[in-house]
Amino acid sequence: MPQERRNLYRILHVQPEAPLEVIRASYRTLMSTLRAHPDLGGDPDAAARINAAYAILSDPQRRRAYDLSLKAGPARRAASASSSRADAAAPAPAPAAAETFAVHDPAAWLADRACPFCRQPLPAAVAAQTRCAGCDSPLLRRPALERGELFGRRRSPRNARPIGATLRLPGLPGDHAVRLRDLSLGGFSLVSPVPAPVRGAMRVMTSGFDGVAVVVGCQRQADGWLLHGELLTLQLLRSQGVFVSAKA
């Protein structure tokens, strides 16, 4: 059974009634004074959770939606338990796109024991070829980076050549043709015809790899949207030429 989502207020070490000034101060303390930022030696996954929590709690509209989801949580769980007893074979409904983007933190997928793209519960064991039963996304965690390296662009193998790829976003129909501008074991940059919400999930597929990433940046450009992603899962589809022109 998947674990409960991590409480965003607990991640930032603040009370639910804390004003924005307190939330902002706690975030800065965690990322700088307590050295949670990866560039200061912090853990990238922990930093991603802190950034995701701050992105929601610092936005009044998203914070209200999150607070409502917390209040509705016990009622939803009770209703779900009742429904399960009435019809154990009924499939669980997929989360709404708004919930996926506004509340779910893809970077917490391992703690949540859920697919970072569609929230389907993870299988008991994950191997190199394991894919999500709900969306067919690869579930193998991408290789670990050296400590203090967020995207692997300084020391990890890197491919800076433009690469054609396919982008898929949760809750949106269809796929989009995109161009990868930069690729490493930790993340990538790509040019997309559509924007993607920061801290949301995206899946990128090429002839060489398939992976799920969390969006860490989205910028408007003349030729589309420049998206920056941090890879969460990665499956190599060939042994050469994915990141460099030798074996990956």
Task: Describe the main β-sheet briefly.
Answer: 6 strands, antiparallel, barrel
- Give the terminus-to-terminus CA distance: 35 Å
Assigned CATH superfamily of the domain at 8-112: DnaJ domain
What count of helical segments does DSSP give?
6
Side-by-side strand order of the widest sheet:
2-3-4-7-6-5
What is the top-level CATH class of the domain at 8-112? Mainly Alpha
Radius of gyration from CA coordinates: 19 Å
- Kindly report the average pLDDT value: 75
Helix content: 25-40%
* CATH-assigned fold name of the domain at 8-112: Helix Hairpins
Please, could you describe this protein's structure?
With 248 residues, the protein is α+β, with helices and mostly antiparallel strands. It has a domain at 8-112: Helix Hairpins (Orthogonal Bundle), CATH 1.10.287. Helices cover 28% and strands 22% of the residues. It has helices at residues 8-11, 20-33, 44-57, 60-86, 97-102, 109-112; strands spanning 158-159, 163-168, 176-184, 187-192, 201-205, 209-221, 224-236. It has a 6-stranded antiparallel β-barrel. The radius of gyration is 19 Å and the shape is globular. It starts with 7 loop residues before the first helix and ends in a 12-residue tail after the last strand. Residues 88-103, 147-159 and 242-248 have low confidence and may be disordered.
